[in-house]
């Protein structure tokens, strides 16, 4: 089995985002192995299509991109352990900063390397994940300003409910962000970059665009939430495909897979597909999800195993080696990641991000 990634769709989505936020730089968010789509290929495709910077969660993700030759600015969204400060400085990463310990470690590392590190202060405007609380802002600024080697280049925050249109909490977060930005300016810091928009805000709230929009899910052609479906011209970039590895005629009255949960009430062709929950195909899809075989929907029959699952295709003629589409299009039908997410009670982000490295990524440029 494999995941097919259409890089021309990613490029199209980045151009769509850039057109929606014409006065902002676009940051391609490529953490989580580009939401399962794969790095460095997706990061490079985004940069080539007009993204000017990248965002990741961990230092290791940024170093992987640097090793692949990416020279664009790379933001690391959470503070790393202080031990990682020198490698962040050596690789010219842009750290998020919100604690004194980490800021001091960065300053020491910057001085040792004779560099000035641009940092972006992460402000907690209400999501309470990481960031500086409003009450601590002036103290933090006083400390940061005494630290050599650090330059406060930006301030940013993250929205908790931007995927729900007109949610009053988003307004509250924006107002607090403006207020905290003004206090930073009043402390004599000139902020070159302010950013708060994720995909949902970028697509639906122009007032959030500011200097940079940080887009992940939309860049992959996925919707940030059910209430944003169709708000822009996005193309899903990922298809998940497997091959039929065995076809057998099973008699009426027989049952299929662990637990014997699927029963045939007539004879049928039961095909085996080489994909299982160790490939990110969630076990809760057992008996619940459809796959496309020859462009037609068939239901997963019984329990999804670790590496395989079965489908009763009835009298359909199927051969070993035939392609089965688990996510994506075949003919006129399509199984979106959102459909699987709904079945298992999660979000599309998780469906693609959980496709592990043992599933090869096959990149197409769509040409
Ligand atoms: C700090 C930060 N910014 C931006 C994003 C991108 O969010 P989205 O994929 O909804 O665009 C994320 C992802 O969760 C994030 O953690």
Summary of the model, kept short:
The chain has helices at 7-20, 31-35, 41-49, 59-67, 85-90, 100-112, 137-146, 168-186, 199-204, 337-344, 348-353, and strands at residues 2-6, 25-29, 53-56, 74-76, 94-97, 117-122, 150-156, 193-197, 212-215, 238-250, 255-256, 262-263, 268-273, 290-293, 296-299, 309-312, 323-330, 333-335, 361-364. It is an alpha/beta fold. The model has no long low-confidence stretch (mean pLDDT 97).
Q: What fraction of residues sit in β-strands?
A: 25-35%
The total domain count is: 2
- Alpha-beta content class: alpha/beta
Integer average pLDDT: 97
Number of strands: 19
Cα Rg: 24 Å
Tally of helical runs: 11
**Most strands sheet:** 9 strands, mixed
User: What would CATH call the homologous superfamily of the largest domain?
Assistant: Alanine racemase
The hetero compounds bound to this protein are: pyridoxal-5'-phosphate
Q: N- to C-terminal separation?
A: 23 Å
Q: At the third CATH level, what is the topology name of the largest domain?
A: TIM Barrel
Q: How helical, in percent, are the residues? A: 25-40%
The CATH class of the largest domain: Alpha Beta
